[in-house]
Amino acid sequence: MAFGPLIGGCRMRRRFVLVILVLILLVPHTLALQMLSGDNISVDTPVDDDVFAAGDTITINAPVAGVVLAGGNITINAPVSGDVFAAGGTIVANSDVGGKIVAAGGEIDVSGSATNAVLAGGVVNIHSDTVISKDAVISGGTVTNAGTVAGNLTVRAEQFQNTGTAGHVDYKRSEGLQEFTERLQQLMTIVYILMIIGFLILGLVLLKVFPAQFRRVEEEVRKSPLRDTAVGFVLIIVSIVVIFLLTITVIGFPVAAVMAMLLIVAVMLSSLFVSFALGRTIVNLLNVKTNDMLIFILGFVILSLLFQIPVAGWLIRIVAVSLGFGAILYAVHENWERITGTSA
Fold it and tell me: N or C: fewer beta carbons within 10 Å in the chain?
């Protein structure tokens, strides 16, 4: 998967601050650390200490005796005696690194040598003059190696071209963005189908266990669809706002949690009652006599197909949820005395 679109200079600098705290722990505490920041940073005189630089563009034109830790678009044109830790959009190492080079960026170009290399980028190029005296681990979209790796060369990439040499090459093709997206879509389709089957089974169970209550809400759906849809839609919005306001306070948080669970359950069940009402309406129009289970299945299948219509399907879904939610509330209100033993 290409890292270029995901890793930009400005964004990487913010994330780099977190990474750098960990990396600093790896640097010997006896060494000093020279801090550099700005839009355009250029090191033009030799540095006897470590260099920590963060900017849009960082260029190392003079030798560094210690470690280089940098975030941004980085170019190293002079030797670095220690390690190099770099993160940014474009990272170019034109000179030798005495220790290891660890880099993550959109494009990484290595012409100098190092002891070890750990590289992750959209495009990674290892040039012919490069010598990695130990191991190299590379992950990216497109990886090209024309250099020499004395130890193991481990590559995970969509495309890999190796014209150089290595003690041992371990290459596995990684999934590209398109393949990953296709797999994710297939997985989501399977999950969606399973959810539809699950809701169908749930509706049949509720209709079997609570037939009277199920029919009462279904009758309310058919009796006042416009009123129930409008009231249901408004109350769903109001409920969400009230739940959000309650979560602000510690005292109201438990109430908000209970209200949120009740709202989620009601919203999930609302379309089941609409399915039953839709099936009942169709059966009545066709003047067909059948049982409640088949009526519910008929309405559920038709409503599920309507949900799949591009654009309009979402509007139908919103209407169905609002209608079912409103019908539930009116059915509960009209039967409140029977439920609680008190008048509504």
Answer: C
State the Cα–Cα distance between residues 44 and 188, nearest whole angstrom.
54
Range of the domain at 94: 9-174
> Which tokens in the block code for residue 128?
């012919």
Whether 73 contacts 89, CB under 8 Å: yes
Answer yes or no: are the C-beta atoms of 123 and 142 closer than 8 Å: yes
The 10 Å Cβ neighbour count of residue 78 is 18
Query: CA 153 to CA 163: how far, in whole Å?
Result: 13
pTM: 0.50
Give per-residue pLDDT as tens, 169-200. 999 887 655 666 777 777 888 888 888 888 88
Distance CA 214, CA 339 (A): 15
User: Quick one: 129 and 218 in the same domain?
Assistant: no
| Structural domains counted in the chain | 2
